[in-house]
From TrEMBL, chain A:
InterPro entries linked to this entry: HPT_dom_sf, Sig_transdc_His_kin_Hpt_dom
Species, as recorded: Tenacibaculum skagerrakense
Biological-process GO terms, alphabetical: phosphorelay signal transduction system
KW Cell division (keyword) present: no
Protein's name in the database: HPt domain-containing protein
Upper lineage: Bacteria, Pseudomonadati, Bacteroidota, Flavobacteriia, Flavobacteriales
TrEMBL record, chain B:
SMART domains documented for this protein: LytTR, REC
Any Pfam family matching the protein: Response_reg
Name under which the protein is recorded: LytTR family two component transcriptional regulator
Source species, domain of life: Bacteria
GO molecular function, one term: phosphorelay response regulator activity
PROSITE patterns, A to Z: HTH_LYTTR (PS50930), RESPONSE_REGULATORY (PS50110)
Species of the source: Tenacibaculum skagerrakense
Length: 105, 239
């Protein structure tokens, strides 16, 4: 079964601080679409060094949303990008779509 | 403790800020998304503790530590567990937190920070990695396009004034920097460098030959002004 994003980590940090929870979700909602676009653009021009940089940034957001298996997958993907291998792109795109759907709900 | 948060990701900064708030004894005095702005701040303000991301574009957390003469206590925050071994090379690094940072792990790091004393504080260098204080004195950082680039001073053989800029010539590369000859002269060791003309500073060890009012440095012929010629001659080991 596909992993589902959650805000458990954000809730743990907030300790009931709703303002912080809203701030975190707002940052994720604002930044993820921009980062996804940058990811696709750098991949399109085959600049895999830059692609790895943006995957590195997205990786933290994956962990914030509690996607543990996806996080491990992305750690490996970032490493492979730096070695010139982008074969995990399609699966990574599915993770991005899952996150985007969750954040725009 | 007064803290600074340095991380290029706003989500990461917000998380550390919240963790500090939850902890109760920490005051976040400022936050920076890049190392260069932070270095400027740290050179002018006292900070007890820095939460520092390692993986930042252009200038890493380790680069930042090496730039500071007396770095405060540092807790590294990173997604990359593989850098942990490098962290042990720095006396100022208290702990190494892998993202996503949990509150219990954060609290443990803060306890360590409270009991942590940086060795060799005061006039001495706090960072012992990558060489000793003598090594640091042999390096110069120049700011080009918001990047701080390290140059080994002995590799500089010539500095030339070019209007509002200076051209630094080294064995491997030339750098054009927005600065003045006077400013770089103050940063270069006097025993090694000499201003031979209002537009030129030379590395004395790199002189190939001297002829009348000029000196040959590598492939560059540099004019020597009349007023500086006697000082140049004094500094040479003449037979």
């Amino acid at each position: 079964m596909k992993e589902q994003p959650n805000i458990n980590y954000i809730k743990q940090l907030s300790g009931g601080d709703v303002e912080f929870e809203e701030k975190m979700l707002s940052i994720l909602q604002k930044e993820l679409p921009v980062e996804v676009e940058t990811y696709l653009n750098t991949l399109k021009i085959n600049n895999l060094q830059q692609t790895a940089e943006i995957v590195h940034k997205i990786k933290h957001k994956i962990s914030i949303l509690g996607l543990e298996k996806s996080y491990q997958f992305t750690v490996q993907y970032e490493k492979e990008l730096l070695e010139g291998n982008k074969s995990k792109h399609e699966d990574f795109l599915k993770i991005l779509n899952t996150m985007s759907d969750f954040l725009t709900k | 403790m007064n803290c600074l948060i340095i991380d290029d990701e706003s989500a990461a900064r917000a998380i550390v800020e919240q963790l500090c708030k939850n902890e109760g004894t920490l005051t976040v005095i400022d936050q920076f998304s890049n190392a260069i702005q932070a270095i400027k701040y740290l050179n002018q303000n006292d900070v007890d503790l820095i939460f520092l991301d390692i993986h930042m574009p252009d200038f890493t957390g380790f680069d930042l530590i090496q730039t500071l003469k007396n770095p405060p206590k540092v807790i590294l925050t990173t997604s990359d567990a593989q850098f942990a071994i490098d962290a042990f090379e720095y006396e100022c690094i208290v702990d190494y937190l892998v993202k996503p940072i949990t509150l219990p792990r954060f609290q443990k790091a803060i306890e360590k920070a409270k009991n942590f004393t940086i060795k060799n504080t005061g006039q001495e260098k706090a960072v012992t990695s990558k060489g000793d204080a003598k090594d640091e004195e042999s390096q110069l950082y120049i700011n080009i396009d918001r990047r701080l680039i390290k140059i080994e001073i002995p590799s500089i053989y010539l500095v030339e004034a070019k209007g509002d800029y200076i051209l630094i010539k080294t064995d491997s590369k030339n750098y054009t920097v927005h600065s003045t000859l006077k400013k770089i002269e103050e940063k270069l060791p006097k025993e090694l460098f000499l201003k031979v003309h209002r537009s030129y500073i030379i590395n004395l060890k790199r002189i190939i030959d001297i002829e009348d009012n000029s000196v040959l440095i590598a492939k560059d012929v540099v004019p020597v002004s009349r007023s500086n010629r006697s000082e140049l001659m004094k500094r040479l080991n003449l037979l």
